[in-house]
Design goal:
Protein name: MLX interacting protein
Distance between the termini: 58 Å
Shape: elongated
Strand order of the largest sheet: 1-2
Radius of gyration: 26 Å
Number of helices: 3
Largest sheet: 2 strands, antiparallel
Order of helices and strands: EEHHH
Helix content: 25-40%
Strand content: 5-15%
Number of strands: 2
Organism: Homo sapiens (Human)
């Protein structure tokens, strides 16, 4: 993929994507924040269902065990 740079004399020249200053890896990495990792580490682990209750669970409960406390009794 090529990008085009315009020179002062009106001519445009192709520039490989790797050399384009807009796609500088160091600049992109400095823009990322670690909010994803900080939010993941602040959450409590999910409690797994009691093995005695597994017989009463449906398929959705096995896929998302963290939703079991939200079900009505």
């Amino acid at each position: 993929m090529l990008y085009w740079h315009k020179h002062g004399d009106g001519w445009k020249t192709p520039v490989p994507m790797e050399e384009d200053p807009l796609l500088d890896t160091d600049m992109l990495m400095s823009e990322f924040s670690d909010t994803l990792f900080s939010t993941l580490s602040s959450h409590q682990p999910v409690a797994w269902p009691n093995p005695r209750e597994i017989a009463h669970l449906g398929n959705a409960d096995m896929i998302q065990p963290g939703l079991i406390p939200l079900q009505p009794n």
